[in-house]
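User: Hello! I'm new to structural biology and keep hearing that structure can be predicted from sequence alone. Could you demonstrate with RNA polymerase subunit? Please show me the input and the output so I can see what each looks like.

Assistant: Of course. The first part below is the input, the amino acid sequence of RNA polymerase subunit. The second part is the output, the predicted structure written as tokens.
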Amino acid sequence: MVNAKYQVALANTLNADGTAGSTNFDATFPGITGKPSLMDRYEYVMYGKVYKYKDAFSGGQVKVEVYISFGGLLMLLVGDPKKLQDLEVDSSVYLLVRKV
């Protein structure tokens, strides 16, 4: 059995400098113009939308559940509300994965 480790990241933009991206098609999309982007650092990138956000309780601690759809592939994140507060319903999310 191969023991592979992966790094997973969430981002709200693909711009390497952190500036907001366009929600519409843009000919300056990172990767098309050769402009540096987060896609250059990862092997797999998916675009998704947050469709549900709710409070949850686990072991006496307050948690939140964030549901994200990547075109039918669904993700559930459960965690500390302070770390997941930037994820809001209808916000865009990029999931980035690379082997380390």
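User: So the tokens describe the shape?

Assistant: Right, they're a compact way of writing down the 3D structure. Reading them back into a model, for example: The CA atoms of residues 13 and 32 lie 15 Å apart.
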